[in-house]
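The instructor's notes for this session suggest beginning with a concrete chain rather than abstract definitions. Hand out the sequence below and ask the class to guess, before any prediction is shown, which regions might be ordered.
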Amino acid sequence: MSYGQAPQTRVNIQLLGPEQGLPSRNTRSLAQDGRGFMWVATGQELWRYDGYTFQNFTAMLTRSLGGGTLINQIRTGPNGAIWVAHNSGVSIVDPLDLTCKTINPSKPFKNIDSKQHLDVFFDKDQNGWVSVPRGKLIKINKNFVPVALYTPPADAGNAAAVGSQITKMFVDGKDRLYAFSDSTYLDEINEKANLINRTNLLAKDMDPRRFSVFNVVQSGADTLQIYYKHNISKKFLMRQYALGTRIFSPLTDIDTPIAADVIYAYKNNYKWYKSSKEIGLLNQKTGQFTNLTTRLLQKSGADIFFFGACLSTDGSFWAAGVDGLIKVTLTEEIFRRYMSVPLEKTGDIGSSVRGITEDNSGMIWACSYGYNRDGLQYLLHQIDPLTHLSRHMQLHSKANVSNEMVIPYKVLFTKDEVYAVTDGIQFLKIDPETEAYHAVAFPFVSGRGFTSFYKLNDSTFWAGTWGGMGIIGTRDLKPVLLNDKAGRYIKNERINNFMPWNQNRILVSTTNGLYVLNQDASIYEHYGQTAGDKIKLPALQIFHTAWFENALWAATGQGLIRIDVNNKTTQLFTTHDGLPDNNIYAALPDERGNLWLSTNKGLSRFDTRTKKFHNYGISDGLPHLEFNHGSYLKSRNGTLYFGGLNGVVAFNPEKLDLSSKKESGLQLISYSKFDAGRNKADTITTHQAGQQIIFNPGDRLFAFAFMSPDYQNTSLNRFRYKLEGWGDDRWQMFENGNKLLFNSLPPGNYMLKVQVSVGGADWSSQEWQSPVRVLTPWYKSVWFFVLSLLFIGILIYLFYQYRLRQIMDIQKIRNGISADMHDEIGSTLSSITFYSQALLMQIEKTEHQQVVQKIKENAQQVQEGLSDIVWSVKAGSDQIEDVFARMFQFGSTLAESKGFDFRFESDSQLQNLKLDMQTRKNLYLIFKEAMNNAAKYSNANTVEVYTTRESGRTKLTINDNGRGFDPGFIKKGNGLTNMHQRAAQMNGVLTIHSAIDEGTTITLLF
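After discussion, reveal the predicted structure:
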């Protein structure tokens, strides 16, 4: 038999030194600033700790001093500033902008003969009091100005020794100030640093030769606790001293094993006691005192000495010593452990537990892969939940004692019998009294073995395997594998869990979703991702299901699914919502609206009403973080059991105090960026929340580091973010611990928001946020776009003006040519015509008259052709309407002289069409040639001309009703040839259609 380990207060000790980035183990003093960062002095260096890394701020201090120094003490001052006392004065570090201001408090006072500034204290009015040698104090007001000096009275006419020092200052309930030096006196001082009263703490009933004041601590608003040391017996005694009445209480033995030089209290739960060589804590609820000195010695591995101590705002106790910085945290365990063994490393494995069940008497049965005790290995275990005693059983075969060992996977019960399936292929009937079993082997079709076990009734058991489902009866012990049976059964799929469902059916969890089975194990319906499924699931690997709060909950390999069976809808919860791990093995409900989830990273409590998670890890008392499939149970009395890689944990959720909500602030440690232009990374440590962060266009590889001033278990702290304005405003988990990384960000304005979950608790309602602006490259900016448009517009305008001038110049040249041709050649041709006519009237011979007549006709033809050329060259007649007007004028004149009817019609679509000089000339000359041919040869009485617009081209049609001709026999002269050539120059097509006595039609398409 063995007892389970009861829950207790868990003490976690961490020694921080060079392994964590602190270069020296010899830490001298420490304090916590107003933002929650821990500051550590190692003598000549000043470091800041954020729970993850140490950062060196010595350079900031030495810049303020102008050189190095020896740090004597650091304290947390008003407004959370860090005051550093050293041999050059006092430096005040602003934790927000990380600036350092140094003052020399001793400078205004002539009777201070030492540069050492040993310690700093503060009164209720936020004034600083700096301790210097010979027991003196310097008062520094809120403006960091030294305003007063306290000098202790001379003892027997002699001034205090150089080594005398004020080591403690106390403020009572009426804001009166008291100073205690390393002698025996307590001095009351007023605000002007004048002595009001001196009290000898060695009262009249104490012989100073036998007793000495060991230490003084404040135990109440108006009470001091004085520790005395007997100089001969080395025994410690104590008494109380009332500050207001100046009355000593009777001398008694000390109430704790440690005579402390400092006592810290945290939320009325614990009191921490520290002396130079001992640390202990008192549980104020139970009165139990725990001395941690031995454990600290084991941690440091050497003799210890503590210089300073600090209780941080989260309740963590810190001590600065010669062996490093020590952090001590406390966790109230809630879990009782069975079959757990100490592990050297977190990843080690103890006794791995599988199925957990409860028999009719309330005893808890657990199967394991082997629990070693007294040199023997046990595989089946029985836990009494009342006495917490465990019985461990070795199984052996009834048929053969030396038979191969079987490993039970899960146990089930009928009224009188105990049955089990194994991790292999055996079905067992077990006799608990003799620990003997009878085995029935299933065919090896089941693959690697059984995965689940379910009692349909006292005579029928269902078993799930890695590759299907089996059935066995308790009467005949004959197994049936449904893989071999015809019909709609679950086949070749891993079965993880069976659960009673409505209408006397069974809900089965598999690696292919959920199946609803009838009593004969046939499939009724399926929920998954295939066509025809009534409910579509976001994940298929289902380990366990539970009906709770009017919904079906599925524990899967991809998170927790809430299934609304009525509305056929689902909702998936993952690590983004607060889960420690997406691999969930079980979901057990309690009576408070919570689901308790076992995962590969601890346990998680999910509030189904608020949709919040609270996670539990090693520091909460879990023997291991990784739990097992099939290893869970909710007993009849409400106790929950979970099995994992190091035994079983059990607890009753009804007895847990879940009222406290763990909230913690969030701070940005620093952010960095890589400046591609300078090929250098920049890190900014002084950014304050709410201020805008600006990145230049060439910046990339952005990294943000965050911390929370909760140091209880930083390994469980999780961070998530959302970057509003990036297209996805959902919360996203940090993938690198406390660091958020972006390779690059497109130009734009964003809002970065960050939340933290500390120590496994729910996401804090406090939120860090800061606007982020990524500047647009100059070549993508609005002003560059506007200037580019303006520049392009100017170029277009200048080109337009250039082309306009070119066109005007060409028009001037064309008009000049046409004018010259008209004036010079036209007038000459007119003279030839006139002189020919005059000559005809004087010549009598007929043959001479014919020659002169020919000269006259040729001159008239040239003059007419010249007129056409002048018209085509002259600018201002580029509109097609001008061409049509000249064509109409020529046709009308010709028709009138030849005596035929002339009709001319133009399409309105051609009104605004412009023609270049060559085109309009060719168009007009083709028309003119066609009209002349009709007038000379067709003997027509009607000529019709039509112009139309067809498919983006212009069509000219000339039709006469003359006698026509046969195109096959007509000889092509210069006229027809010229017409075809001109049409080709226009990129047009000229067609002539004619027949004898049917007229002629000429068509030009260009």
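Then share the key points. The helical segments are 58-65, 293-300, 782-840, 846-873, 880-898, 917-938, 974-985. Residues 716 and 920 are 89 Å apart (CA to CA).
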